[in-house]
Every structure is written in C-alpha cells, then in structure tokens.
Write a structure and sequence with these properties.
It is built from no helices and 16 strands. The strands form 4 sheets. It has a 4-stranded antiparallel β-sheet with strand order 1-2-3-4, with no helix packed on it. A 4-stranded antiparallel β-sheet has the order 5-6-7-8, with no helix packed on it. It has a 4-stranded antiparallel β-sheet with strand order 9-10-11-12, with no helix packed on it. It has strands at 9-11, 17-21, 24-29, 34-40, 45-51, 56-62, 66-71, 76-82, 94-97, 103-107, 113-118, 123-126, 139-142, 148-151, 159-163, 166-169.
Length: 183
Amino acid sequence: IGGDFPYSSVLATNNRFYTHYGSYFFEFDPAQRKFTFFHKTAPQMAMGMTEDDNGVIWSASYPQSGLVSYNSKTGEFKDYGHLYKQTWAQYPRSVAADDAGWVYFGIGSTASQIIAFHPATATASPIVRDEERQHGSGQVTRDVNGKVYAHTGGAAGKWIELYQGVRTDLDEKPAIKAKPIIT
C-alpha cells in the first residue's frame, strides 16, 4: 500500500494476526485464510503492537506517535490520532499495557521518550523529563506481575516502573519476567 510495509504485527490470543501499515489497521484470520477486519487510520504504520489483558490490540505508529485500538470481541475500533507531535519522525518500537488498562509506548530515536496513555480519558502524557531525554529509544516491557518496566533510553538511561500511569524510579535494572506476547 503506497510503498509502505508491515513493520510490526501481533498474533493475538484469539489466534488472529494483526498488523497496521499504509494507514490501515488489519485483522487476518489464518483459519479462514482471509482478512476479517480493516480500518483506515491516521498516518502511517505501526512500529510496535501489543495485546492487553482484555484482548484489545494496540498499535503505536510512525511518524507522530499515533495510537489505535481494536477489540475483536466487540468490533470496536478507536483511532486516537497523533498523541505526541515533535519536529522529527518518531519510532514507537515497543508497546505494553499494565493490568490496570494503561498503555505505554517507548519512542525514539532522535530523543527518547515514553508515553503513558489512559484509555478511559483518552489522555497521553510524556513520562521522560526533558533533561533525561537522549539519542535513542525508550523501551517498555510488560511483566507477568501486571506492571510495565521501562528504560528511559540511551547509555545513561534510567530504569522505571510504570503502573496506572505513575512513574516510580528504580535504583537498578529489575528482574523482568516478560508476559508472553507474540509480536
């Protein structure tokens, strides 16, 4: 589609495959061997995707930190648009959701950042303070304990815990037991 490619995808617990590129979000059912859902989105393509505890698929997109969600149980699709505009193209490479329903994504690579998104209010907030931002990418990982652990990016980056949109600084890298998500 327009020279675009699927840079991220996820195989969900419902055994369907999801991707987002060319400003379209897609659901593919391998059992039926056909696309079963698609929807136009704000530009352009996913760099990171995840599935939350309720089976909702989340996609964070290049170039201006777009975010969409799709609930395959209800068919509800939401495009939240671009949430963190900068003067440079952003690469949201990792996406994670805590067990309270908050969604986080790490972006880079001009200047690292982590965005916390609260679906109930559709609000997004940057987590990394301006003086902490470095060349590189913020990274997020969902732990089996329900929390999200993040690295603020770059060589001097910090480890933090994220839960219900709250940042807790850590003194060292946590022993992360990542929740299995096929992405």
